[in-house]
Design goal:
48% of the residues are buried. By secondary structure, the protein is of the alpha/beta class. The protein has a five-stranded mixed beta sheet. The longest helix has 22 residues, at 250-271. It is 40% helix and 18% strand. Helix 2 (86-97) crosses helix 8, helix 3 runs parallel beside helix 5 (172-184) and helix 6 (189-208) crosses helix 7. The chain has helices spanning 42-56, 86-97, 137-146, 154-159, 172-184, 189-208, 227-237, 250-271; strands spanning 11-16, 20-26, 31-37, 67-70, 82-83, 103-107, 112-117, 123-129, 217-220, 241-242. Bound molecules: adenosine-5'-diphosphate. Adenosine-5'-diphosphate binds at residues 17-20, 71-72, 108-110, 137-138, 140-141, 151-152, 154-155, 221-223, 225-226, 248.
C-alpha cells in the first residue's frame, strides 16, 4: 500500500444518506466517487466504503487530511473531522457540478429539499420536506413495487406514455391503493408512472416555489437519474432543470470541497513562518 506522496493533500466527503452512503475523495484536481447501500448499520457501511475508496486511491484512510461528514446519518460518524449540514454541502457540491446553478432541488430516499444559492454556492434560502414520504424517492420505490417495476425502469416506462393518469392521493399509502385501482381499471403502466412523476413534480414544485427558484436548476439525489421526472419538474417550474452525471454525489462532493478548504487553510498555517 502506497502512503500519501510528498505534501499532496487528499480529503474526503462522506454523505451518510437514509438509503445510500456516498464517498468522494479529492486532491484539488481529481474526484473519486463511490456509493454503497446504507443497510442496517449506516455508520459501519460508511466506514467500510471510506476504507474501500481510500484503498482504490492507493492510500490508507488514516492518511486523509480531513473528512467532512454530511447527510441524515452524519452525527453517527465518529471518524469525521467535522459534520456539515446537507443543505450547505448540496449547495456547494451543486455549484461545483453544474456551472451557473442558482437553485438546487435534491430528492433523496427520505426527504426532498429546495436550496437557493449564490454564485459561490453559498446558501441564500432553503426549504425541506422530511415529514412525509410523498415527493421523495421512498414514494417512487413503493409505487414501483406496486407496479412490479424496478425504480431504475420508471423513467423509460414513463417516457413511453402517451398520457398521464391523474393521481389524487396525497399520501403514499393511499396512492398505492389508487395505483392498484388504476391497474385494475385497465390503465396502462406508462400512463400511471407518468402520473406518479407528475404528482411528485407538483409536490416538489410547490415546495420549491417557497424559495422563489431561479434557473438554471440542478436536480440532485438518487432520483436525479430519472429523466422523465426531471422533465416534469422543468415543466412544473417553467425553468430549465439539469441533472449532472454525478448528481447523486452532490452532497459528498460539497463535503469534500469543504474538507479541502479546511485542509488547505490548515496546511497554509503549518507552513507559515513560526506557524
Ligand atoms: P439518501 O441520500 O437519502 O440515501 P439518495 O439521494 O441516495 O438518498 O436517493 C435514494 C433514492 O433514489 C431511493 O429512494 C431510490 O429509490 C431513488 N432512485 C434511484 N434511482 C431512481 C430512479 N431511476 N427513478 C426514481 N427514483 C430513483
Amino acid at each position: 500500500m502506497k502512503q500519501k506522496q510528498g505534501v499532496a493533500l487528499v480529503v474526503a466527503g462522506v454523505d451518510a444518506g437514509s438509503t445510500a452512503i456516498k464517498v468522494t475523495l479529492y486532491d484539488g484536481r481529481r474526484l473519486l466517487n463511490r456509493m454503497a447501500p446504507a443497510g442496517w448499520n449506516p455508520k459501519e457501511a460508511a466506514a467500510a466504503l471510506l476504507q474501500k475508496t481510500a484503498v482504490e486511491w492507493e492510500m490508507e484512510p488514516t492518511a486523509l487530511d480531513g473528512i467532512v461528514g454530511t447527510g441524515y446519518g452524519r452525527n453517527g460518524l465518529s471518524f469525521v473531522t467535522r459534520s456539515v449540514t446537507e443543505i450547505t454541502c448540496h449547495g456547494r457540491g451543486s455549484a461545483y457540478l453544474q456551472q451557473g446553478c442558482r437553485t438546487v432541488i435534491d430528492i433523496g430516499g427520505q426527504d426532498a429539499k429546495a436550496i437557493r444559492i449564490d454564485e459561490q454556492g453559498r446558501v441564500v434560502d432553503f426549504v425541506m420536506n422530511d415529514k412525509c414520504a410523498a415527493g421523495t424517492g421512498r414514494f417512487l420505490q413503493t409505487m414501483a413495487q406496486a407496479l412490479d417495476l424496478d425504480v431504475a425502469e420508471l423513467s423509460e416506462v414513463a417516457l413511453a406514455a402517451t398520457e398521464a393518469c391523474t393521481i389524487n392521493a396525497m399520501c403514499t399509502v393511499f396512492a398505492e391503493s389508487e395505483v392498484i385501482g388504476l391497474l385494475n381499471r385497465g390503465c396502462s403502466r406508462p400512463a400511471i408512472v407518468a402520473g406518479l412523476h407528475r404528482s411528485v413534480a407538483n409536490r416538489v414544485g410547490a415546495m420549491a416555489a417557497r424559495v422563489s427558484p431561479i434557473g438554471p436548476v440542478t436536480l440532485t439525489g438518487g432520483v436525479a437519474v430519472n429523466d422523465h421526472l426531471r422533465q416534469e419538474l422543468a415543466r412544473n417550474l417553467g425553468l430549465p432543470v439539469h441533472s449532472p452525471a454525478a448528481a447523486v454525489f452532490a452532497g459528498s462532493t460539497g463535503a469534500a470541497l469543504i474538507a479541502w478548504d479546511m485542509a488547505t487553510a490548515e496546511s497554509g498555517k503549518r507552513t507559515m513562518p513560526g506557524g
